[in-house]
Write a structure and sequence with these properties.
single chain, 466 residues, alpha/beta, TIM Barrel, 8-stranded parallel β-sheet, 13 helices, 30% helix, globular, binds N-(aminocarbonyl)-beta-alanine, binds zinc ion
């Protein structure tokens, strides 16, 4: 059963070309000069559309237990929302809680996701307790389970936190088995002091979440992680949810030295701010409580992050999708910002929000595709199966309409959230058609996919290292 996508403009990191794309079954089999492909197959008209690889969101937290509750999207609702937004692969974070056997945490994550996903999925592993057993488990996960990246936390003492000795040992292990260390780089013990002092002064509102997590404590942790990775014989290091200029400068310095140090940012840091969102009147700002926090609009963070995307000091845009409803979940922190569950939901909007950068002249079309699809696939061992429109790759394809418009609202989104962090945002551009492994799952805003279509993707090692 073959289908020819005709008349579109195929975008890849290396160029933008008019090509017809032939799909057979679940795979892309050939690209043709316009009008020269087979005539006796089904056709999808992509005239006027960009034909891009399906988005790869390398940072999601479906059903994450956190802050006394759990993220409100299940693998079912979250991957369906991802599909609507042109994301056809997610890499979610399985969790080893402190004291838990790593493989048990992984098994629990498989149990949550199996049969529930609408698009393909893979896992990173959060290590909540680095000890001898966990270090041995890292080898097993890389060799047998298709998990080649491990997230550690310099933040959240008492929850996911690792101390520097634990971090160093995990980095040494990763250096030996080829895995990537992903780092939540904020100085948690110092933040906890600032949080207690703020609460003691009666500063309880959402904006104090941001004010007690100053940029310096992200920059310090980022720098420390980079130095620890150098001590671990240059273990590959990936800084997650980078939000601020000084942390970016630390990454840029390491990259200029030729190190395997990488970073992602997220749409919220490119667009939203401490003052306008976190500082919204009353308790409203709770909607935007996430860590790292939104940064001040009076400083150069957003400009610097867009520049970092152009220079590749920021390689990837992921969402850090971790939704909590306002009612009943964010409400847990009314009167004490430190109890507001941390996270923002954006899995449905990443492709659109970054296309806005193209529309605004901040990013090239090629760089858009690279940061939302190709590099995440390469970084995390999914390439060339994902992230590229080429013969042999999975037929994960999005037809994107540059003449369309998207208005984001809780009234129209598909995420399981009672509000939108992006309410009222207007995007020049629109997801038109989404194809996952050869099946049209979204077309003209209508859903044709099904729960269980998405498969687990065992990953190889990163193919992005220098
Ligand atoms: O606020 C956030 N980022 N919530 C998700 C957990 C994490 O640290 O990534
Ligand atoms: Zn629930
Ligand atoms: Zn984190
Ligand atoms: Zn996260």
């Amino acid at each position: 059963m073959a289908t020819l996508i005709t008349g579109g403009t195929v975008v890849s990191p290396t160029g933008t070309h008019r090509n017809d794309v032939l799909i057979d079954g679940e795979k892309i089999v050939a690209l043709f000069a316009p009008g020269t492909g087979p005539q006796d197959v089904a056709a999808i008209d992509a005239t006027g559309k960009y034909v891009i690889p399906g988005g790869v969101d390398a940072h999601t937290h479906m059903e994450l237990p956190f802050g006394g509750t759990h993220a409100s999207d299940t693998f079912d609702t979250g991957t369906r929302a991802a599909a609507f937004g042109g994301t056809t692969t997610i890499v979610d974070f399985a969790v080893q809680r402190t004291g838990e056997v790593v493989q048990d945490g992984l098994a629990a994550w498989h149990a949550k996701a199996a049969g529930e996903c609408h698009v393909d999925y893979a896992f990173h592993m959060i290590l909540g307790g680095v000890d001898d057993d966990a270090l041995k488990a890292m080898d097993v996960l890389v060799a047998d389970e298709g998990i080649s990246s491990f997230k550690l936390f310099m933040a959240y003492p008492g929850v996911f936190y690792s101390d520097d000795g634990q971090i160093l040992r995990a980095m040494q292990k990763a250096r030996d088995n080829g895995a990537m260390i992903m780092m939540h780089a904020e100085n948690g013990p110092a933040i906890d002091v600032l949080v207690q002092q703020a609460l003691a002064r009666g500063e309880t509102g959402p904006i104090h979440h941001g004010l007690t997590r100053p940029e310096a404590l992200e920059a310090e942790a980022t720098h420390r992680a980079i130095m620890l990775a150098s001590v671990a014989a240059d273990c590959p290091l990936y800084i997650v949810h980078l939000s601020a200029s000084k942390a970016l400068a630390a990454v840029a310095e390491a990259r200029d030295a030729g190190r395997n140090v990488f970073a992602e940012t997220c749409p919220q840091y490119l667009y939203l701010t401490l003052e306008d969102q976190l500082g919204a009147p009353g308790f409203e700002g709770a909607k935007w409580v996430c860590s790292t926090p939104l940064r001040s609009k009076h400083e150069s963070h957003r400009t610097d992050l867009w520049r970092g995307l152009r220079t590749n000091d920021l390689a990837i845009v992921s969402t850090d999708h971790c939704p909590f409803c306002f009612k009943d979940q964010k409400e847990l922190g009314r009167g004490d910002f430190s109890r507001i569950p941390n996270g923002i939901g954006s899995v449905e909007h990443r492709v659109d929000l970054l296309y806005q950068g193209v529309a605004d002249g901040k990013l090239s079309l090629e760089r858009w595709v690279e940061t939302i699809a190709t590099t995440p696939a390469r970084m995390f061992g999914l390439y060339p199966r994902k992230g590229v429109i080429a013969p042999g790759s999975d037929a994960d394809i999005v037809l994107y309409d540059p003449a369309g418009r998207t208005r984001i609202s809780v009234e129209t989104h598909h995420m399981n959230m009672d509000h939108s962090a992006w309410e009222g945002y207007e995007i020049a551009g629109k997801v038109d058609t989404v194809i996952s492994r050869g099946t049209v799952i979204v077309s003209g805003g209508t859903y044709h996919g099904r729960k269980g279509h998405g498969r687990y993707l065992p990953r190889g090692l990163s193919t992005y290292l220098v």
